User: Fold this.
Amino acid sequence: MNLGQWIGLIAIVLSLYILWQIREVLLLMFAAVVLATTLNRLAKRLQRLGMTRGLAVVLSVALFFAGVIGFFWLIMPPFIQQFNELTDRVPQGFERFNSWLDELRTRIPSQLVPYIPDINSLIQQAQPFVNRVLGSSFALVSGSLEVVLKVLLVLVLTGMLLADPMAYRKVFVRIFPSFYRRRVDGILDKCEVSLEGWVTGAVIAMGVVGLMSVVGLSILGVKAALALGVLAGFLNLIPNLGPTMSVVPAMAIALLDAPWKVVAVLILYFIIQQVESNFITPIVMAHQVSLLPAVTLIAQLFFVTFFGFLGLFLALPLTVVAKIWLQEVLIKDVLDEWGHNHAKETELVIVSDPPGSGDNYTTETPTSDKERSNDDV
Assistant:
């Protein structure tokens, strides 16, 4: 390679290294873009009703904050109350289990007594694990300030993007060559429509799952059914893993009432998940975003491996945007045009053999040569 190629290679490697180092910042910026795009589309719909741009933006932001505040207002108080009750009942459950084991030892043959576990020894063996959990909890609390700062950063960026979205869009388009800027602008339109479709489908699926969870938990008589249903709907934004995460607090609270309710809650959430994955998501998302289930799972594994929990939460919108760019740029503009460009450079010309040979053959003559021969004539 010559000097220019080496410089280009070094520049690409350094760019990839810098992008990798600031990957978390880029994810936060992408989260702000997704949120700003969603609120901007809502503001545009309100503008069609006759509102001014400023009033539509303010109303969209107000609806967003009302939803966030309502979510935490429904979730936090019941969970704090149930958690306190759970911490009080767990020692009682240990004592009851220990007395049951003591009674069991008196009724079984003496040869089997050594194989009966001792609750005190189990607690001692679990002590290191408890210490690690508490340590990670303290680390989570100590890192809560960092989480708050990241959330504030996303909200500030969202407000800036929402104030004048076209200005930032023009800046992004101008980093491309002049002949490709109109094409990039069209791709951004498709990304915006797809993100709106994903948000719409996700909100519909979230509402249906939350409603079914509230109704099912209320029928079973589980406490804090409304909070658990709202949490189940919110975690449904994370496909595959979200429903598994939502069943844990529901089973823990059901354990406070009766052991059979734990099994009933597990069966209920399994039925809801089957209904959501086989009926709700195919019907809703088929009209919004077309993503294969295997692609969704692979994208989740990829983003959670390289970007952590934030990557898991943003896996679907990232996949939606990446799919559009790959389909429009790589497939349509590069791969699909590859053969056409070659065909434009050459032209098939039929040349006849001398009379009597009876055979014809074809040859490829460059278009420029043909034009040159015509000019000579």
